Amino acid sequence: MSDAPSKAERMEIRKAIGNRSVPGPYNPPYHRGADYLTAHACFDCRSSWKMHEDSNGVCPNCGGSANFMGRAFKAPKKSNSEQWKKVERLWRAGFRFFPNTGWRDVEPYPERLREVEGFIRQNPKHPFRVVR
């Protein structure tokens, strides 16, 4: 009597005649989305949210302009009008809110609205000022 083929041989015979298909590796769908979402703010309705940097720039709440603020922006409370005015003046002067981990010796942004004008005059080459 002849010996029956081993399991590995049987599988090879089945693959050769097409009775056994071997699936390839499974690659699940993978969508990373945007690399980073950055803070945007609307000064009209005093709201902030994160969007892709290249987004259309329209506020989802009121339809106003969505202004790119930077990755380190923390929005003030809606009721704090002084802080929103301070943030808006800094933004209009070209300052953005970036993490300052590599810029420890940079002068920090002012705490109060009344200090903003002096800060803007004293810091024409501030590293976080993108528009001069």
Description:
With 132 residues, this protein is of the alpha+beta class. The protein is built from three helices and three strands. Strands 2-1-3 form a three-stranded antiparallel sheet, with no helix packed on it. A hairpin with a 4-residue loop joins strand 1 (37-42) and strand 2 (47-52). It starts with 6 loop residues before the first helix and ends in a 10-residue tail after the last helix.
Q: How are the elements arranged and paired?
A:
Layout: H1 7-17, E1 37-42, E2 47-52, E3 67-70, H2 81-92, H3 116-122
Tell me the Rg in angstroms.
Answer: 29 Å
How would a crystallographer describe the biggest sheet? Answer: 3 strands, antiparallel
Number of separate strands:
3
- Straight-line distance between termini: 93 Å
Count every helix, treating DSSP H or I runs of 4 or more residues as helices: 3
Shape: elongated
Query: Roughly what fraction of the amino acids lie in strands?
Result: 5-15%
Uncertain residue segments: none
Order of helices and strands: HEEEHH
Sheet/helix structural class? alpha+beta
Task: State the helicity in percent bands.
Answer: 10-25%
Average pLDDT value?
84
- Across the major sheet, the strand order is 2-1-3
Offer a concise description of the structure.
The protein has 132 residues and is an alpha+beta fold.
Features:
3-stranded antiparallel sheet; 3 helices; 132 residues; alpha+beta
